[in-house]
Known about the structure:
Elements: E1 3-4, H1 26-48, H2 73-77, E2 84-86, E3 89-90, E4 109-113, H3 124-130, E5 137-140, H4 155-165, H5 168-174, E6 179-181, H6 185-188, H7 200-211, E7 225-229, E8 236-240, E9 251-252, E10 263-264, H8 276-286, E11 292-296, H9 315-328, E12 333-337, E13 344-349, E14 355-360, E15 389-395, E16 400-406, E17 412-419
Parallel strand pairs: 4-5, 5-6, 8-11, 11-12, 12-14
Antiparallel strand pairs: 1-17, 2-3, 4-15, 7-8, 9-10, 13-14, 15-16, 16-17
Helix pairs in contact: 3-5
Amino acid sequence: xxxxxxxxxxxxxxxxxxxxxxxxxxxAMAGVFVALSAAVVAFLMQTVDPLNISSDAExxxxxxxxxxxxxxxxxxxxxxxRKEVLPGVPSxxxxxxxxxxxxxxxxxxxxxxxxxxxxxxxxxxxxxxxxEPRPQVFMMIGDAVYGDIKSPGAKELVRAYRxxxxxPELAKARQAIPFLSIWDDHDFGANDAGSxxxxxxxxxxxxxxxxxxxxxxPVEQGIYYARTYGAEGKRVQIIMLDTRSFRxxxxxxxxxxxxxxxxxxxxxxxxxxxxxxxxxxxEERLQEAADVRIVVTSIQLxxxxxxxxxxxxxxxxxxxxxxxxxxxxxxxxxxxxGDRHFGAFYSGKLANGQVLPEMTSSSLNRSYxxxxxxxxxxxxxxxxxxENFGVVDIDWRQRRVELLLKGIDGETLDGITVKxxxxxxxx
Length: 427
C-alpha cells in the first residue's frame, strides 16, 4: 500500500492565491478594478434578489452604480406567492435554480464541506472559487443550515433555510458551481436526532424544496440517493447515505468508556444505522458499474478516538458496511464525512486487503476549539479545527486519488494520496 499524507506538489491544481499581473500601467489597473467591482456588485444583486433593488433611487452621479439594497429573508419571502412547501409556508428555495452537473462529465475535481451557519459570514466560498481549476461539483454533506426545530410547523428550520437562501456569498458560489447535498442532524431538525424524531417529514420536504431536488420516494422514507458521472473507465459513483431517518438511539456514555464525548459503543443487533431498506438499496448500488465510488456519510465511519456521533457507536453496523463492500466486490471506495467541526484523514483496510480512506471536512464557517480526540491507529493526521473544506482530485492518467483539506483562503492544510491499485481499481 502507498498512502501518504503529504500533498503532491507537482500536480496542476493551484491551491490558492492570486497570480501576479504584469505589463499593466496604474491607470489600466484602476480601470480593470472599477469594472470588475461593478460587475461583481451587479452579479450579486441579480442572483440574490433581482426584484428588490431600488430602481427609483435618485442618482446624483450617473456614472456611479447605486448601492445594492440589503435584503433580509423576511422581506424576500414576504407575500412571495410561491407554492407552499408546508401548510401555510411558501417555498424556501433560492430565487434562481441550482446548477445541474452533466452526467457525461468526467470528474477530476470535487469539493466537499459541512457545517455552514446561515447567520454567520461565509468568506470560505471565495477560497473555493479561487481554486485553479475550480471544483466541477461541490458536495454539502450535512448541516447546510442550523435550524433545530423547537416549535410546531418547523418554524426554526423554515427561517434557517430562508436566511441561507439570501446569503450573497453562497449565492455567488452556487451560480458558479453545481451542488449536491445530503443532511445531518441540524438540517434534519434536531441535534443528534435519529429515527424517533417526529418532524423528519417536514424537514425532508424543506430539504428537497431548498435544494430543488425531486424526491425518489415518499419523504418519510429517507432522502438517500446515488449519482454516476462519466464514461466507462472513468465513471465516478457518488452515494449519499441518510444516517438520520432510520438510525437507532445511541447508548449514553458510562464511566467505563475512556474517550471524551456523549456516547459509547453497544453491540446490539436490533439497532441500525441505515435501516433494512436503505441497506438493501446500498447493496444494489455497490454492484453497479463504477471505477471510483465516493460514499458520503454525514458522521464519521472509521474514527475511534471519541464518543460523539459515529458509526463506531454501533460496531455491528460498521462491520456490516465493511463486509458489504467486500462481498459485493466494490472497488475504489472513498469515504467522506463531516459533522465534527474539524478536518482530518483516516484509513482502514478491508478483508481483501483493499485500502479504505476517509476524509472528514468540517466546518465551513463554524470553527470551534481544538479537538480532544485520542490519536488512535486509524487516524493519519492531526485535526484541523479552523474553517476548512475538502477537495477530491482524481488523476485518471497517473491512476491515483488525492484527498486535500483546504483552508479558508483555499490554501492546502494537509492531504493524502492513494493509488488506484490500493483501492482495488487496478490489479
